[in-house]
Amino acid sequence: MQDSQWPLWEVFIQANPGIPHKHAGSVHAADKEMALTNARDVYTRRKEGTSIWVVPSNYVVASNPNDADMLFDPANDKIYRHPTFYVMPEGAEAI
Amino acid sequence: MTKQEALFKYFTRLADNALILGHRLSEWSSNAPILEEDLALTNIALDLIGRAQALYKYAAEIESKGRTEDDLVYKRAERQFLNVLLVEQPNGDFAMTIARQIFYSAYELLFLEELSKSKDATLSALAIKCLKEVRYHWRHAYDWLQRLGDGTEESHERMQRGMDELWMLTGELFEIDEVEAMLIEEEIAVDNSSLYERWNTMVSDAIKEATLNRPADGYMQTGGRKGVHTENLGFILAEMQYLPRAYPEAKW
């Protein structure tokens, strides 16, 4: 579908310092400064953020839903990939 | 004039500027060029209306005649409003709104920087809080000035027209009268006239950067600060005050 609006940007918001930026949604904007201010105005009005990333949507490469079986199902029976099989060394708080 | 009267008038002027500009910007709600800009302008409006509420509250406390902030907003007549003429001007096209924002937010930025040094603890605390908001208002207006000025032939022309039309209302921003004079003496109020040089540089540079022409200085229309308004304020008040005047007991 042809989008008649300005280019689309994906918005990522970091809720607190140190944690990953999470995808929040998208905005239309004519340039990167506008994308940033629009993201600020649309997605951080209720104190949601401490940092914003905006990325042109056409730079996002997405997997094809038709490939989901091939890409993700093989992980279903590989429970040994979870770290639950390891015994915590005595005294260690995290490995 | 007692100090109490001067303070009441000073707070009321500041509050009226914020309220009326906030109301004007809120008129963009659902009418802005794009959804994102709709939110941007109404966010700015909410910053201003929030500030107005705080200022009216202090004004009412200083006056101590039992009036509330709602009384000051809904039960004063046109001649009792003391905002500058610039903020009551119609939104016009988007470029004209940006012109108003450029002139006003540059002034506010400088004004609040000075007000943050006020001897009045309430004013300085409020100024420090509002400075953060107004830095963003300036950034928003500045970015748009550049885009429209340095954009298409039509956007350039409209941006120039918007500025040309409003320029004669910018002189009033730098006026002072006996209210300020009394409070400047006490290091409470800001000397508006001392802001002009910096404002002129800030605005002229932004205009030049946007490939536009700074309008020529000429006759400056003033009067709002004394309660003598353009015809626009009456229409704003008619809309803003209709409900509480028609239904005085209404609660919402």
Notes on the protein architecture:
The complex is a heterodimer of chains A (95) and B (252). Chain A has 95 residues and is α+β, with helices and mostly antiparallel strands. Chain A has one domain (8-85): Ubiquitin-like (UB roll) (Roll), CATH 3.10.20. In chain A, 18% of the residues lie in helices and 21% in strands. Chain A is built from 2 helices and 3 strands; from the N terminus they run E-E-H-E-H. Chain A has helices spanning 32-43, 68-72; strands at residues 8-14, 22-28, 51-56. The longest helix of chain A is centred in the middle third of the chain and has 12 residues, at 32-43. The model of chain A has no long low-confidence stretch (mean pLDDT 88). By secondary structure, chain B is mainly alpha-helical. Chain B contains 10 helices and no strands. Chain B is globular and about 55 Å long. Chain A binds chain B through residues 5-6, 27-31, 33-34, 37-38, 40-42, 45, and chain B through 34-37, 39-40, 43, 136, 139-140, 143, 147.
Secondary structure topology:
The complex is a heterodimer of chains A (95) and B (252).
Chain A: E1 8-14, E2 22-28, H1 32-43, E3 51-56, H2 68-72
Chain B: H1 3-26, H2 35-63, H3 69-74, H4 85-88, H5 94-115, H6 121-149, H7 153-166, H8 178-185, H9 196-209, H10 232-246
Helix pairs in contact in B: 1-2, 1-8, 2-6, 5-6, 5-7, 5-9, 6-7
Distance between the termini of chain B: 37 Å
Please identify the structural class of chain A as seen in this structure: alpha+beta
Largest sheet properties of chain A: 3 strands, antiparallel
Counting DSSP E segments of at least 2 residues, the number of strands of chain B comes to: 0
- Give the terminus-to-terminus CA distance of chain A: 48 Å
Q: Quick check: average pLDDT of chain B? A: 96
CATH topology description of chain B: Ferritin
Element string of chain B (H = helix, E = strand): HHHHHHHHHH
If you compute it from the alpha carbons, what radius of gyration of chain B comes out, rounded to the nearest whole angstrom?
A: 18 Å
What is the strand content of chain B? under 5%
CATH class of chain A: Alpha Beta
Strand fraction of chain A: 15-25%
Biggest sheet strand line-up of chain A:
2-1-3
Greatest contact between two chains? A-B, 15 and 12 residues
Kindly provide the name of the CATH class of chain B: Mainly Alpha
In CATH terms, what is the fold-level topology of chain A? Ubiquitin-like (UB roll)
